[in-house]
Amino acid sequence: MRPVSLLLAAMVLVAIAPLPSSAAEKIRVVIVDGQNNHKWQETTPILQQILKASGRYTVDVATSPPKGQKDAMQKFHPDLAKYDVVVSNYNGEPWSDAFNTDLHQRLKAGTIGLVIVHAANNAFSGWKEYNQMIGMGWRGTGFGKRLKYVDGKPVIVPAGQDLGSGHRYVGPFEITLRDAEHPVTKGMPASWLHGRDELYDNMRGPVENVHVLATAFSDSAKKGTGTHEPMIWTVQYGQGRVFHTPMGHDVYAMQCAGFAAVLERGTEWAATGQVTIPLPKDFPTADKASIRSKK
User: Fold this and answer.
1) pTM higher than the cut 0.90
2) What is the average per-residue pLDDT within 53-75?
3) What is the mean predicted confidence (pLDDT) over 220-227?
4) What are the φ and ψ backbone dihedral angles of 189, each rounded to 5 degrees?
5) What is the bridge-based pairing of β-strands 85-88 and 27-33?
6) CA distances from 266 to 74, 106, 115, 223 (A)
7) pLDDT tier for residue 16 given thresholds of 50, 70 and 90
8) From CA 79, how far away is CA 101, in angstroms rounded?
9) How buried is 208 (Cβ within 10 angstroms: 0-12 exposed, 13-18 middle, 19+ buried)?
C-alpha cells in the first residue's frame, strides 16, 4: 500500500474509532424545572452539582416559561432525543400534549429513563400516563390506592380510605431498607438517618409495577401517620425505568449525603438499569445524619 493510502486509512480509523470510555460512558441528563411550589431556583443547582460531582453525567437544564404563558408553554419541548434520562424538578402548569406524548412513548420504549424528585410527584394529576409512570404521588383521598408498610409488610389501602397526601411530620427521619439487594440500595446500612425534610405520606395512585426500596416511619407522636411510608421506589413502565423519591424538599434536605447518593445511583439506574457509582464515605449511619455544606 502506498504511503498516501496508509495515511488515509489511518485517518479513517481515527475518525470512526470510539470515544474514550470516560467520555463515551457519560449519561446525558436533562433536569426539567421552571415552575414549582418549591424553590426550584435554589434546588436545581444542587441537583446539578450532585450529579456532576459524581463524574458520571453531563447535565443540562430545561426551564419552562413562567406561569400564565399558555402559548409559550405549548412550545416548551426539550429535545429528548439528546438525553438518556429526565430528572423532574417540576410542579406546575401542564406541558404540551406533544411533550407529554414524547416523554411517555420514549419511556415506554425504554429509550429514556425518568427520575421524580419530591414535589414533582404533585404534578399532572389529570395526566393518566404520568400517574402510571410515577406509581403514586401527592393526590386526594379518593384519587387512587395508597401503599403503606405495617409490621414490615406492604399493605394496599383502597381509594377513599385513610387520608389524602400530606407531610404531617417534618424533621429528620430514619430510612429503612426494604430491598437491600437492589443496585440503588446495595451496600447501604439497613437503616440510616436522613436530615430534616418533609416526610411525604399517603401517596396515592395506580400503584402498578411499583417496587419499594425503602420506607420512613412517620411517628404518630410527632403528628405523623404512625406507619412506614414509601420513601424510595422504582416503577417499571413498559420497557422503561422510573426512579422516584419524595425526599428533597429544600437545599438543606438535598445536602444530606444520603439523598445525594440516592439521587446519583437512582439516576444511573433509571438510565442504564445498573449502578456503578459507589456509596460515599460520608454516608449517614443509623444514628447520625450527614449534612454537607453548600458549595
Assistant:
1) yes
2) 97
3) 96
4) -60, 155
5) parallel
6) 30, 19, 8, 30
7) very low
8) 13
9) middle
pLDDT over threshold 70, residue 148: yes
Given pLDDT bands bounded at 50, 70 and 90, which one contains residue 81?
very high
Is pLDDT above 60 for 11?
no
At the top level of CATH, which class does the domain 25-272 belong to? Answer: alpha beta
| Three-state SS at 72 | helix
Listed by start position, the domains of the chain span: 25-272
Beta bridge pairs of residue 191: 176
Q: Which three cell numbers stand for residue 209?
A: 409495577
Give the separation between CA 13 and CA 162, rounded to whole angstroms.
Answer: 64
E strands in the chain:
27-33, 57-63, 85-88, 113-117, 145-150, 153-157, 166-177, 191-201, 204-205, 210-218, 227-237, 240-245
Pick from 48, 51, 52: nearest CA to 61: 48
Q: 14 phi and psi, to 5 degrees?
A: -65, -40
pLDDT of residue 24: 52
